[in-house]
């Protein structure tokens, strides 16, 4: 509890003791035996109850008068003031004090609940670094504000310190705790040449880092900006509640005035009874249960997501992802790692070994920086690590030259070597068996003799299939993949991970067009798109919900997206859908519960069956219960991601 909460708590306890004492004195007849004239007994009782009333309710009255002076008349403070003044006016001193006392008790519980819900966001804000250890030209360390550090500056990160700015390790090796950013508890080892992101904590050894971004563009600054701005993007439900409260409160206030005046005029009841009913009507009409619990529910959902390393940029996006029934994914970098690897080597005959094929291909590709060439060279190096007896002396190619769009040629022992695609072999009249295997195909030939085939494929991310099935369990009915890759490769990946439909060989503009057609076709739900590259940014913005990879994704994709997965784990898509749906369910429960109870008590109050105590429950009790229910949205753990959703 804060100091203010503790002060309020102590005040409530003190007035509660006084209130109980006054009840005992009143019901035991002590006040009736006071040696004062009968004419002064009523004013005396008024003063006796007014003093504790002012002690417990002075801040409510002050807020009401301040708001009235600013033109903001109809709020809960105004309603409580008018209702309790009315109770004093008809001589219901006990109920007037009770209403204010229990209203303040409810407000205390409410403040405590809101404080608890903000804890996860406050904890997230603590990732912001306070300083950066800059190494100057003389090698001395200067403690500098991270916002003043320029790109290319060398900074020192000691064990236990936060990394203030994104950069590349230029010296040192250590474990880095990334849990505050990615939600992953397992530390990640970084060494020279490795990238590190701000907000993470250095665990073991001293690291020297060369900054690659300004502070305002670094990961931690972007995260804090997203979280701070999330509350500005309200969901449809929040906007509805805001508009509802704006019209609802004046209407019920006018209704209470009419209820106090009309029945006595027509002789239906006394002014005392009608004013009492109007006071009950006013107390229960306060919409604070809705105004506070609905945004708090969304706030809890955003907080629960952030603890798992999922950044939701606003409650409107949380609401949208809850309604998503179509999930569209990019292939490279989203479903696959974007890392090409040799997956198969096929010899044309038993006379040719796989080692000979890969050695010739590596010899031809040794000067190339293309990812396909690098994958061949890496496989060749790994093969040498496993078999030290192998020698490249017999496969040293000369006169290496590139045939644009086809491949590479070279000379070996007077014979020409061909390493490339089918066009290269066909153009040189070499007979070969064309492969129908998915992936990038490299054919190897020497002279007119076809030696064999190398199949290179992008590696599918671990857990991609589980992520797709998890999304379907979470409520997604259709999963679609869009890719610029060829159709055979795309279908092979889709079959392995359980994707329903594939659209291949698409340009960025084609992807936007395809998503637009899906938006038109899908009238019953929302379309969510997951991507990571610069080319995905237009599609991320066009979809109902854009989800980007936060670790390996481009800045443009992260900026365009509505939800960011900080550790690139697509398995968390199902988690954010489940969190969003749970949040919406809780918010709807609060709306139905609050309105039902209030309408019931308003009706009972209008016909004379409701008491002030019932009215207090209809206002304060309902608000506390709705807020406590909203706090359930924050309760989410990694175990829940495996399909065990807390109710």
List the helices and strands and how they pair.
Layout lengths: L2 H25 L10 H32 L6 H14 L3 H25 L1 H7 L6 E4 L5 E4 L9 E4 L9 E5 L2 E4 L1 H4 L5 E3 L4 E2 L4 E2 L4 E5 L7 H12 L5 H30 L5 H15 L2 H20 L2 E3 L2 H8 L1 E7 L5 E12 L6 H12 L5 H16 L11 E6 L3 E6 L2 E6 L1 H6 L12 E7 L2 E12 L3 H10 L4 E5 L4 H11 L3 E3 L4 H14 L4 E6 L5 H6 L2 E5 L5 H6 L2 E3 L6 H35 L5 H19 L17
Parallel strand pairs: 11-18, 11-20, 18-19, 20-21, 21-22
Antiparallel strand pairs: 1-2, 1-3, 3-9, 4-7, 4-9, 5-6, 5-8, 10-22, 12-17, 13-14, 14-15, 15-16, 16-17
Name given to the CATH homologous superfamily of the domain at 338-459: Calcium-transporting ATPase, cytoplasmic domain N
Largest beta sheet: what is the strand line-up? 10-22-21-20-11-18-19
Overall helicity = 40-55%
What's the CATH topology name of the domain at 338-459? Answer: Calcium-transporting ATPase, cytoplasmic domain N
Low-confidence stretches: 643-647
Q: What Rg, in angstroms, do the CA atoms define? A: 35 Å
Q: Count helical runs.
A: 21
Please identify the top-level CATH class of the domain at 338-459.
Alpha Beta
User: Which architecture of the domain at 338-459 would the CATH scheme give at its second level?
Assistant: 3-Layer(aba) Sandwich
Specify the overall morphology.
Answer: elongated
Strand content: 15-25%
- Return the structural class: alpha+beta
Q: What is the overall pLDDT average? A: 81
User: Largest beta sheet, briefly?
Assistant: 7 strands, mixed
Instruction: Tell me the number of strands.
Output: 22
**CA-CA gap between termini:** 27 Å
